[in-house]
Amino acid sequence: MRYITVFLIGAxxxxxxxxxxxGNPAKVLNFFxxxxxxxxxxxxxxxxxxxxxxxxxxxxxxxxQKPVFGETFVLPKAKFIDRKLVGGSAVFGIGWGIAGxxxxxxxxxxxxxxxTALIFVAAMLVGIFVARxxxxxxxxxxxxxxxxxxxx
Length: 152
Description:
The chain is an all-alpha fold. It has one domain (2-136). The chain is built from 6 helices and no strands. It has helices at 2-20, 25-32, 41-63, 83-99, 103-110, 115-136. The longest helix is centred in the middle third of the chain and has 23 residues, at 41-63. InterPro entries: DUF6691 (IPR046513). This is Membrane protein YedE/YeeE.
């Protein structure tokens, strides 16, 4: 039942991406073109998504002790902004601005045979593996503090 539910939620999300036009990279790129062919429809898509998600999360966390298909809610443990968050956000934003795809829109666009979506997803997978490698190599660890020189 869990996989059927996940599939249906993913299909509904993909349908929303396609119906809203967010699977079309030109539409997304027009959102970023403030001086040219600006298209504000992405704002309305985001507002619509937030108008459902925010009350939905509030309702779920108020009424449920645990998720339907899990033992506990998995929430971020970090409560601060660090290099990983800033770097990941920057890479996401730059990639979105260059390609016109975010991961959520690129996957449904694959179904339409967009070559640019295939290139984006391939690059995204490479990025995931590079980030995982760097994370395991402690690349993102906080820099070491200098040791004060002894006066001796």
